[in-house]
Design a protein that fits this description.
With 192 residues, the protein is mostly helical. The chain folds into 2 domains: 59 residues, Orthogonal Bundle (Helix Hairpins), CATH 1.10.287; 102 residues, 3-Layer(bab) Sandwich (minor pseudopilin epsh fold). 51% of the residues lie in helices and 12% in strands. A 3-stranded antiparallel beta sheet has the order 2-1-3. The model has no long low-confidence stretch (mean pLDDT 96).
Length: 192
């Protein structure tokens, strides 16, 4: 049986950048529904004993969509921190400078990926072939199925930001980078 991981912080920890109401709906209803749906789809099947990652790699259709959304959302919650945002220093900052030219160029590429994702989807910082890169995925798709190592993501489905930002997706993405991005999480993913 798949479970919904606990949030790594309280539902009101990201105020004023993300409201508790957004978490009540996004985590409490959307994410929880993906878990319920996936469990209903794997019940009494060989998939019931597989890990979430194995289900993602070996499924399609409704099961893939729900399983990948469980994983993407869990990753998204960890991609944010009440103490996040700004520019990372140390080795991570140096890698971003080396692979993108500067943090500002990375931020520009990440924001462009998030804002230009048509419809629902995700923008990602990934490691691909030993190099940092930005990519976007539509709907429930994830870099896991493309052989890329996810490091950071922002959810650009409307339910991720609409209560707080209405139709201002660019403002949400800028706030994510300026005030929420969890660079410690990125460093841990790079090391792992």
């Amino acid at each position: 049986m798949l479970t919904q991981p606990d949030l790594p912080y309280a539902m009101n920890a990201l105020v004023p950048h993300m409201s508790e109401q957004t978490f009540e709906f996004h985590y409490g209803k959307h994410h929880a529904t993906y878990v319920t749906n996936a469990n209903n789809l794997i019940k009494d099947t060989p998939m019931a004993d597989k890990s979430l990652e194995d289900i993602i790699q070996s499924s399609e259709g409704g099961l893939f969509n729900n399983a990948a959304q469980i994983w993407n959302h869990s990753f998204f919650w960890n991609s944010m921190s009440p103490d996040g945002g700004g520019q990372p220093g140390g080795d991570l900052g140096a890698r971003i400078d080396a692979d993108f030219g500067s943090f500002d160029k990375f931020a520009e590429a990440f924001q462009a990926a998030a804002v230009t994702q048509f419809g629902s989807g995700w923008a990602w910082l990934v490691e691909d072939g030993g190099k940092l890169a930005v990519c976007q995925t539509a709907n429930a798709n994830t870099p896991l199925t493309d052989g890329k190592k996810p490091l950071l993501t922002v959810d650009v489905w409307e339910h991720a930001y609409y209560l707080d930002y209405q139709n201002r997706r660019p403002d949400f993405v800028k706030t994510f980078l300026d005030s929420l991005a969890n660079w410690d999480f990125v460093e841990a993913n790079l090391a792992g």
